[in-house]
Recover the amino acids of this structure.
């Protein structure tokens, strides 16, 4: 900022306004002289915070406060470019925040840039940076609509559906609460078996899926083994008498 001194005998007023003319209105004995003018240069804002944090775990809130000052006392506005969809900035406070999910695991390109402006000068930008989202294991999920009634002497077959959002996880299956006639394929989760009449009863079966990090999910259902031989129906049938040989 420059200070202007008038050549007139007395300086009555000195007005300084950033980015516009400074006028000195002068008076004295005799008429006439006009005021003089000088241009005041606006000062751009300056960042006082460092480069934002470079890593965050999946599912965890990311927060970083960007700070800047302006010697002119201008209102500052913050912006963010090159950022992934889960990350944003508060234009008034400069707070960067967001929560990445499993699809965001990995390192972003090194082109995230924070800028600030006082609206009286071009935006000032920090150096570009990247953010690495580290993976947190997600448990697998299992679902399906199992057959809940089977007949003694018949064949039982059910395969649940399981998935895991973590790429590369291996899923293994196990079963509990089952009778010995029912078994499971540890790699596919397929339940198969053929119950005998001695297996007629209701059991509570639980299928468990486990991922590479030992996280699990379960599917539980009641399985009824019914007797395939209907004694009540048989008792209603009267056998025909044997015919006598003709004489």
């Amino acid at each position: 900022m420059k200070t202007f001194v008038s050549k007139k005998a007395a300086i009555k007023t000195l007005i300084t306004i950033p980015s516009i003319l400074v006028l000195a209105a002068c008076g004295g004995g005799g008429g006439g002289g006009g005021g003089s003018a000088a241009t005041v240069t606006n000062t751009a804002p300056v960042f006082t915070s460092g480069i934002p944090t470079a890593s965050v775990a999946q599912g965890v809130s990311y927060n970083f406060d960007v700070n800047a000052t302006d010697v002119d006392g201008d209102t500052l506005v913050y912006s963010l470019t090159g950022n992934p969809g889960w990350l944003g900035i508060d234009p008034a406070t400069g707070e960067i925040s967001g929560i990445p999910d499993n699809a965001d695991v990995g390192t972003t390109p090194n082109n995230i840039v924070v800028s600030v402006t006082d609206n009286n000068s071009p935006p000032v930008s920090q150096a570009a940076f990247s953010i690495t989202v580290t993976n947190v294991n997600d448990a697998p999920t299992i679902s399906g609509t199992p057959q809940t009634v089977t007949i003694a002497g018949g064949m039982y077959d059910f395969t649940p559906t399981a998935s895991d959002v973590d790429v590369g996880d291996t899923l293994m299956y196990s079963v509990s609460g089952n009778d010995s006639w029912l078994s499971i394929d540890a790699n596919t989760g397929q339940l198969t078996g053929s119950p005998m009449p001695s297996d007629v009863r209701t059991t509570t079966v639980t299928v468990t899926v486990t991922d590479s990090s030992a996280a699990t999910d379960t599917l539980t259902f009641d399985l009824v083994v019914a007797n395939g031989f209907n004694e009540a129906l048989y008792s209603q049938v009267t056998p025909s008498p044997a015919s006598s040989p003709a004489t």
